[in-house]
Amino acid sequence: MGALRISGKGSSEGQPDVAGIWSPEHAMAWHLEEAFRKDPAGWAAAKCQEWDRREAGLPAFLQEIPDCPCTLSQARADFGRFHTDDGCDMEKGSVCTYHPGAVHCVRSVQASPRYGAGQQCCYTRQGVQLLTEDSAGGSTPDRGHDWGAPPYKQPPRVPGFSHWLYDVLSFYFCCLWSDRCDVYLKRRPSSGCQRYRPPRAASAFGDPHFLTFDGLNFTFKGLGEYVLLASKGTDLRLQGRIRLLKGQPGAKAKVTGLSAIAMRENNSDVVEVRFGEKSQALEVLLNQKALNFSEQTWMDLNGLFLSSGPGTKVSVLFSSGAGVEVSGQGGKALGLTVLLPESFQDQTEGLFGRMNGRPHDDLTLPNGTALEAASSGPREHFAFGAEWAVSNGTSLFTYDSRELRESFVCGPKRRPSFPASVSGPAEPDPRLVEQAASVCQGDPFCRFDALTTGDPALGSLARASHQRFRKLRQDLKPGRPLPPPLTRTRRHASPPPHPNPPREAAA
User: Fold this and answer.
1) How far is the C-alpha of 245 from the C-alpha of 419, rounded, in Å?
2) Which of 6, 244, 277, 278 is buried deepest, with most CB atoms within 10 A?
3) Enclosing H/E stretch for 107
């Protein structure tokens, strides 16, 4: 196996830094010895047996890789720990050469800690896992993770090549070029989903509205920079900047939204996603320097993977299994989704609350005092959020403009005088109420944002974000019924109700 490079004829053999086009790794069958050409099946079967003997002397890795998600919906939703396998992607036509019968496969994002192994999980059109016990096209784990693992310089941790050496060439020998696939599947049996536990999800979007890991909903309209999530276990820190948004003419209330998200875990690189100062396009900063995704959309960085998806979406996948997804929401306000594995249970604090299955203590202040969630209202939510303001010493943000320095470095990190009212206009335009009713279809976050901003389009973005989040939670726990509609649409001219419906089902 190997890779081919095409470069200009002016370069010499061994010359460094030569511009060229590289092929992916692939099997170079045309480069094999005479014995292969005389008896391909016999030659391949002998290579398969040789590989089997070598495998017997290597460390057992199957017990330290994660189990697969049980369903296709879970596999696609758990973006913090699993990523689409380019070799079998339903978004690209499900061309699954190595896994016939599958329509989609995912790979574990992180390599296993001791041996650098990887997990692969494949699924049928019916959404169930395809197992090697039932089919030769079943999911197969990898001794060498396809993306490699630190420190990368030795097998089985070399990106690409280790995977081919330990897992792919052997598949050619045993399954594609001979009839000894039983030998391969004996060494690479599918993992089930008995140990799989779906992650918990939290989200923030719109004006902004926060949906915690345990299902509490509240709106926090405080200008400033705040701790969205902090975890002592992995020192995961997620901070958000809330600024004024521009509402439509006729909007009487001040409207806020997330404009920047900064994050770090342990000693990882610092990633910040924000709107540009002069445009509404997303900017991604790595350790305070702008990144360019024109040549690659997937980056393996210190302590994290960074992915820029189609449109305006950025995903950050930390080594702990935590996943953060930031979207541009039409250039008006950032939308944020966070997934945490169960190892974060009882380890979180901040605006997203304590992830412990008990929503009543999600409004816990930095000093440990928990506000009563059941009887809390807009003023309590404002007071709670204000206590989680970051300081200059703990901030992860980049202040590379005069306006940012004056607003957030020289000035206060939060604006305590900002009105806590979230009631919106007392007498909204009846035509706006009618538009909101048509656009929102009963979604309380949509209606609140539409009437507060005077912009039904902003309400529509909030509704879309809320629907995506509800679907994410449903996909992570398939078969669990969704809660009933949160509110009924009001068609008379009245102020928007505060969007704190009955709490969402906890993920």
Assistant:
1) 15
2) 244
3) strand 104-108
Sequence-separated contacts (24+) of 325-329 with Cβ below 8 Å: 325/79, 326/261, 326/273, 326/282, 327/465, 328/275, 328/280, 328/281, 328/282, 329/205, 329/461, 329/465
Summarised one tens digit per residue, pLDDT across range 277-307 is 777 788 999 999 999 888 888 999 999 999 9
Contact 201, 337 (CB under 8 A): yes
Would the pTM count as exceeding 0.70? Answer: yes
Q: How many residues in total does the chain contain?
A: 507
The Cα-based distances of 325 to 68, 199, 201, 328, 477 in angstroms read 21, 14, 11, 10, 19
Q: How many CB atoms lie within 10 A of CB 33?
A: 8
Paired sense of beta strands 120-123 and 200-205, if any:
unpaired
Phi-psi region of 257 (alpha: psi -120 to 50; beta: other; left: phi over 0): beta
Residue with tokens 């919106």: 424
Dihedral pair phi/psi, residue 41, rounded to 5° = -65, -45
What distance in Å separates the CA atoms of residue 383 and residue 389, rounded to the nearest whole number?
11
Residue 57 to residue 146: CA distance in whole angstroms? 22
Residue 305 tokens, joined: 């993977």
Could you give the CA distance from residue 183 to residue 52 in angstroms, rounded to a whole number? 7
Here the tokens at position 154 are 């030795």
Model pLDDT for residues 240-267, shown as the tens digit of each residue:
999 987 654 544 456 789 999 999 999 9
Q: How far is CA 178 from the centre of its chain?
A: 40
Ramachandran category for residue 493: left, alpha or beta (phi over 0 → left; psi -120 to 50 → alpha): beta
Give yes or no for a cis peptide into 156 (omega within 30° of 0): yes
